[in-house]
Structure of ArfGAP with dual PH domains 1:
Amino acid sequence: MALEPEGNNRLLQDVLVRPGNETCADCGNPEPDWASLTLGVFVCQACSLLHRSIPHISRVKSVQDTWDASEVELMAAMGNNAAKAKYEQKVPAFYYRPTHTDCKLLREQWIRAKYERNEFEFIEKQEPYSAGYREGFLWKRGRDNGQFLSRKFILSEREGALKYFNKQDARDPKAVMKIETLNATFQPAKIGNPCGLQITYLKDNSTRNIFVYHSDAKEMVDWFNAIRAARFHYLQVAFPGASDEELVPKLTRNFMKEGFMEKTGPKHTEGFKKRWFTMDDRRLMYFKDPLDAYARGEVFIGSKENSYTVLAGLPASTQGYHWNHGITIVTPDRKFLFACETEAEQRDWIAAFQRVINRPMRPQEYAVEAHFKHKP
């Protein structure tokens, strides 16, 4: 005898609480409330919208809808763990697995790579980002005029560098970015393009920014994962005893926090100026414009064991600020004064600074700190 719809939905709830089904199959968000009937996976609402962009592969339905017995059976037969064993069986260690906090581009391309292109079932499909060499054209923002122009990029693991060329037939690159200090992070809002990628590297121990995009979403994510692959193979050689689990978090990193604050100079007598700040690990950089190629200045933030502290507020004698929510960072050499527009921003910045200060310094970070102290 067929179950009433309520009975089917009760059975579906039993399937939902099985191991693996309690989080979204694609981004790990807890308590997924949608399902793909064709793929047999439970997903969150945000990922269900991305599944709708591949209707020939995935048909989604809310777990709150009325379900019939055959649909429940399909979900019971597959489920997230079985789907993962099939669709993610050969994901390279370096490949970026997005979470629910990542941008739409990364999440959508992860879903398409798994279910539409079957990239992790057939290793030959991973060649665009795992071959150790990649070349192509990206739109790059000009340092001085802000215009995006097509530039040829070459990533070579053998040469240990990412290079770009200003002219198509140029023999010498305009810039050589060593894989050793390379980072890449998607910045769609900042760059004003859904495929916007910010690439950073160190030049003379100062951070240099390059902003690029490609009109093809897969192309841009392939570049990102090719950079991660190059970093992974570089670190495997640099740290031969390290496990994949130790190396993967070091491949690329998102900035801890970004936003506008006001700052004053070392004498604390100059007026406060509004600047764009980026917190990248222990480097606090400030720029006149969020898309500047070079920082106006960088501040090293060490640990509490080394006499670094962060305080809410500014010294009583401070003048010249427009925003009222102050922050003082105390270093062994001097105090840095900042002001935030809102109390919420002040709270978030202090939390970001505190996370860094609470973390003991690694041996290589002492060398970075020493360089900052010797800057003119």
Residues 119 and 126 are 6 Å apart (CA to CA).
